[in-house]
Amino acid sequence: MKKSLSIILMVSLLVFLFSGISVAATHITFGTGSPGGTYYPLGGAMADLWTKLLKAEGIEVTAESTAASVENSRLVGSGEIQIGMAMSSVSFKAYKGEVDPFKGTPQPILGLFSMYPAPQ
Predict the structure, then answer these.
(1) Class assignment of domain 23-112?
(2) What are the boundaries of the signal sequence (predicted)?
(3) Closest among 103, 85, 25 to 59, alpha carbons compared
(4) In the chain, where the domains are located
């Protein structure tokens, strides 16, 4: 009887202690482009959709206006933003350190997906 009561009290205490713990919200900054370009409205819509889909997990995504591909590669590489839109050719050259301002300094970035065809 004493053992059962101890177990019940211990479980109750643990439930009580952990019931007030909530998952801290995670904020993700999504670098887009200038408000007059294609990246900004597309990135804004994507950020809104991701926030809606990931709200239950406590994740919020905010689109931020930037100078687009090169700046987003720099911002992601430095950890200032978590996701950034960029042309694949710019991302590849930034990753390899072959484009200004990254000459000789490869960036620690990773591609997620291709958004739309952009022949060059």
Answers:
(1) alpha beta
(2) none
(3) 25
(4) 23-112
